[in-house]
Design brief:
The chain is about 40% helix and about 20% strand. It has three domains: about 10-45, no CATH class; about 55-185, no CATH class; about 195-295, Endonuclease, Chain A. A four-stranded mixed beta sheet has the order 9-10-11-12. The chain starts with 14 loop residues before the first strand and ends in a 7-residue tail after the last helix. It has helices at about 20-25, 30, 55-65, 75-80, 130-140, 145-155, 160-170, 180-185, 195-205, 250-265, 275-280, 280-295; strands spanning about 15, 35-40, 45, 70, 90-95, 110, 120-125, 125-130, 215-220, 225-230, 235-240, 270-275. It is elongated and about 80 Å long. By secondary structure, it is α+β, with helices and mostly antiparallel strands. The chain has twelve helices and twelve strands. Helix 6 (about 145-155) crosses helix 8 (about 180-185).
Length: about 300
């Protein structure tokens, strides 16, 4: 019968530096290679019984792998604010001072940049870029659609607002990224309730369609009828993103019933699925454009 791996009580349920555990006599190098321990980064290990999340990895990175003045940044920072879900295996994004000689490392995405006072905050013991600085960074690092997915989420949680983001960008006019942030702010909307809604809205606008209203409420004589993901109320045209519907079949039927009532009230409601968003968005744009045209919309120029 194989011998059970050593699991000193001091290390159970913990994340630790392998070299420290070895130098203190708790483990040997061979012990570290056993099934009892899970390598997270170079010389950083976790008890294999511990559930490791992206936040767990962010905490380990901030504690052991980056120099002072660094912070969790980008999409990793957004995830710590509750915006977006990142798997535990995805690289941790970090912002390190330009003076630091931190090079590439497995499991990390290292960005070198200067920070201003207030750009780094403490979030449950982890240094993280502020919500406003996070918006600045994703506007520089991601394509405009994916950047706005993050920015929409931060705005929806009221961690920053569009006025603060504009001021932040204008105060840094001339620095790399300020125009990208201004463009993103103009396209952002705190009313988006899911990443896919954000993607659909921004792509429709970038395709040249007028900007829709988010979460538009339709009422009849003061009575609630429906809430629409994206709507052009002056034309009575709407777009609904058909996602998971919160895994609630009853909610699906209730929403469909409301939308059928809207159709009876002369609204045009177009449904966008994940597949069409991915594979046939140009075709969907043509359908929305045609619907708006039938209701009197005339593009400028």
């Amino acid at each position: 019968m194989p011998k059970a791996p050593r699991r000193p009580p001091q290390l159970r349920g913990r994340i630790f530096r392998g070299s420290v555990a070895v130098s203190s006599g708790l483990l040997t190098r061979n012990d570290l290679r056993s099934s009892a321990w899970r390598p997270l980064f170079r010389d950083v290990y976790a008890d294999a019984h511990l559930t490791v999340t992206h936040r767990t990895r962010c905490s380990a990175v901030a504690r052991w792998l980056v120099p002072p003045g660094s912070a969790i940044a980008g999409r990793s920072a957004a995830a710590l604010y509750g915006v977006g879900r990142l798997a535990s295996t995805e690289p941790v994004e970090v912002l390190v001072p330009t003076t630091a000689r931190t090079g590439p490392a497995a499991g990390l995405r290292v960005r070198h940049a200067c920070t201003d006072p207030g750009d780094i905050v403490d979030r449950a013991g982890i240094p993280v870029t502020s919500a406003t600085r996070t918006c600045w960074d994703v506007a520089r690092w991601l394509d405009v659609v994916e950047a706005i997915v993050v920015i929409d989420g931060l705005l929806a949680r009221r961690l920053t607002d569009r006025a603060a983001l504009r001021e932040y960008a204008l105060n840094r006019a001339g620095r790399r990224g300020w125009r990208s942030l201004l463009r993103a702010v103009d396209l952002a909307d705190p009313g988006a309730e899911s990443p896919q809604e954000s993607r659909a809205r921004v792509r429709l606008v970038l395709a040249g369609l007028p900007r829709p209203e988010t979460q538009y409420v339709v009422a009849d004589a003061g009575r609630f009828v429906a809430r629409l993901d994206l709507a052009w109320p002056q034309f009575k045209v709407a777009v609904e993103y058909d996602g998971l519907w919160h895994d609630d079949p009853e909610q699906f039927h209730r929403d469909r019933r409301r939308l059928n009532q809207l159709l009876g009230d002369e609204w045009i409601v177009l449904h966008l699925t994940a597949r069409r968003l991915r594979d046939d968005f140009d075709g969907f744009v043509a359908e929305v454009r045609a619907a708006l045209r039938t209701r009197g919309h005339r593009p400028r120029g």
